[in-house]
Amino acid sequence: MKIRSYQSLVEHGQVRTLIDNVEKVVVGKRREVELSVVALLCGGHVLLEDVPGVGKTMMVRAIAKSIGAEFKRIQFTPDLLPSDVTGVSVFNQKDMEFHFRPGPVMSNIVLADEINRTSPKTQAALLEALEEGSVTVDGETRTLQDPFLVMATQNPIEYSGTYPLPEAQLDRFLFKFKIGYPTKTEELDVLNRVERQHPIESLSEVLSLQDVVNIKKEVQQVKVHQSVKHYIIDLVTSTRLHHAVSLGASPRASISLMKAAQALALMQGRNYTVPDDVKFLAPYVLQHRMILTSDAKLSNQSNERIVADVIEQVRVPAGEEIGG
Fold it and tell me: How far is CA 175 from CA 192, 264, 283, 321, 322, in A?
C-alpha cells in the first residue's frame, strides 16, 4: 500500500515551532517528524525500521534538544544486560546500604538503537517502561519522568545477527515506520547543511519540558465522538476477521489509535477528532500488530496491503454523524 500523501498544516503554534526546529536537522521528512511528535504528545513510543545512515538518530536527538529533554542512548548489543537498561542497586560500603544507580531508560527521551540486535531477555526489560512508564528494580517501582518517549531503531529482519521483536514488544509501540532515503535534492541540501558544522550542534531549545506536559494535557481534552470511536473499533476488528490474518490487532491498538488521533487533531488546531485523523494514522498503528497466516505469507501478501484493504472496506462515518 502506498500511503496517501500527507501535507498537514500544523496549526498549533508551539507544536509548529517544534516541528520547524527539528526540520533544521532532518531534511525532507516532515511526515515522519510529525508522527514522532504525535507519539510524544500522546505518551506513545516509536519503532523506526530502516537501513543505517538515513537520519534516525539525528531525528531523535533533534527532538530532544528542541524541548530541552534529558536524552540517553542505549546501544543494544548481544551482550547487553537488562540491568544495563533499567539500572542497578549498588552496595555502598561507607553507609552499608544499597543505592540505586539509574539506567539510561530513566530519561525523558531514550534512543534504543538497534533494539533487535540484543537478546529477547534484554528487549523485555523495556516492556514495563513502554507500557507503565515505570521500572521495577529489586522489588521497588520507580516512575519515569514526564514526558517520556522511547524511539527504538532496528535493522530490517533479513539482516544477519538480529532477533525479531516478539509480538508483546511490538504491541507496546504506538507507531512503526521507515524514514527512507532522501531525494537527490534533499541529499544535496543535507550536504550543504553539514559542510562546515552539523546543524544539530547549534540547534536551540524552543519548548520547555513543562510546555510539552501542558500540551499533553490539552491533547487529553480533545473530544472523540462516539461515531469516531466506532470507526476505530471497526478498523481494528476487521484486522482480526481478515482471512489473511492469524492474529489481528489488540484492544491496545484501539486505544493507541484513539490517543494518536487526539494528538493529531490538536496539532491541526481542532479540539475534536475526525475520521481522517484515524484513517491517516491507522497504517502506522496497525501494520506491526498483525501476524499473517502461512498461506498469506507464501502468496507474498503484506501487512501493509492488508491494512489498506481494511481501510478501503470499513465504512467511514459521515460528517453529520461526527459533530464538532
Answer: 31, 13, 9, 28, 25
Which stretches does DSSP call E strand in 68-213?
71-75, 87-92, 97-102, 109-113, 134-137, 140-143, 149-154, 175-177
pLDDT of residue 5: 44
Distance CA 281, CA 254 (A): 12
Which sign, positive or negative, has the C-alpha torsion 98, 103, 106, 108? positive
Sorted by where each begins, the domain ranges of the chain are 7-218, 221-324
The C-alpha atoms of residue 55 and residue 32 are separated, in whole angstroms, by 11
Question: The dihedral of CA 191, 46, 136, 169: what is its sign?
Answer: negative
Question: CA 271, CA 263: separation in Å to the nearest integer?
Answer: 10
Domain 221-324 has CATH 1.10.8.80: yes
- Write the CB contacts of 79 (distance below 8 Å, at least 6 apart in sequence): none
Sequence-ordered strand ranges (E) for the chain: 46-49, 71-75, 87-92, 97-102, 109-113, 134-137, 140-143, 149-154, 175-177, 245-247, 291-292
Between CA 131 and CA 137, with CA 134 as vertex, the angle to 5 degrees is 125
pLDDT at 127: 83
Cα gap 27→183, rounded to integer Å: 10
Among all chains, which residue has been given the C-alpha cell 530513566? 106
Q: Assess whether pLDDT exceeds 60 at residue 7.
A: no
Residue 249 in grid coordinates: 490487532
Interval 99-115: pLDDT, tens: 788 889 999 999 999 88
Of 158, 90, 76, the C-alpha closest to 122 is 76
Q: Bigger pLDDT: 94 or 112?
A: 112
List the beta bridge partners of residue 91.
98
Architecture per CATH, 7-218: 3-Layer(aba) Sandwich (3.40)
Please name the residue that has the C-alpha cell 500527507. 6
